[in-house]
């Protein structure tokens, strides 16, 4: 059974850090670009970051650039999102998704992704 599972979310104070993980089972992430999206209550889903199949190319939304880092581990079949200097406006459900191609061009377009995880809640609050 193909499954994509996010983990690592939680409650953190402003300025804190969290590391999200996206683990695949039943298929390999190799060969596909992987994206992270988020959706806050009452807002549209937003593309946050993407990493190419090789890991050599990454993209970030302007709102998270310099604070978030995406990475992948082929041996573990996972993709991670390190989130530092978190702000209240980062509060959202975070989703990882598998693109139907190896590159991240227009990574913020959700229709370019085939498989989605169930999401993990990130809450930044004092």
Walk me through the structure.
It is a single chain. With 126 residues, this protein is mainly β. The chain has no helices and eleven strands. The strands form two sheets. Strands 2, 4, 5, 6, 9, 10 and 11 form a seven-stranded mixed sheet that branches. A hairpin with a 6-residue loop joins β4 (34-39) and β5. The radius of gyration is 13 Å and the shape is globular. The mean pLDDT is 96.
Helix content: under 10%
The total beta strand count reads 11
Let me know the average pLDDT: 96
In angstroms, what is the radius of gyration?
13 Å
Topology:
Layout: E1 3-7, E2 10-12, E3 18-25, E4 34-39, E5 46-51, E6 58-60, E7 68-73, E8 78-83, E9 92-99, E10 113-116, E11 120-124
Parallel strand pairs: 2-11
Antiparallel strand pairs: 1-3, 3-8, 4-5, 4-9, 5-6, 7-8, 9-10, 9-11
Summarize the structure.
With 126 residues, the protein is mostly beta strands. The chain has strands spanning 3-7, 10-12, 18-25, 34-39, 46-51, 58-60, 68-73, 78-83, 92-99, 113-116, 120-124.
């Amino acid at each position: 059974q193909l499954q994509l599972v996010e983990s690592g979310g939680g409650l953190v104070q402003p300025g804190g850090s969290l590391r999200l993980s996206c683990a695949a089972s039943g298929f390999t992430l190799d060969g596909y670009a992987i994206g992270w999206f988020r959706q806050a209550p009452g807002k549209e889903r937003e593309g946050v970051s993407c990493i190419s199949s090789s890991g050599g190319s990454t993209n970030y939304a302007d709102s998270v650039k310099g604070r978030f880092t995406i990475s992948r581990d082929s041996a573990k079949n996972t993709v991670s999102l390190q989130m530092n200097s978190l702000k209240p406006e980062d509060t959202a459900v975070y989703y990882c998704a598998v693109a139907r191609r190896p590159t991240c061009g227009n990574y913020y377009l959700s229709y370019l992704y085939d498989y989605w995880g169930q999401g993990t809640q990130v809450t930044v609050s004092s």
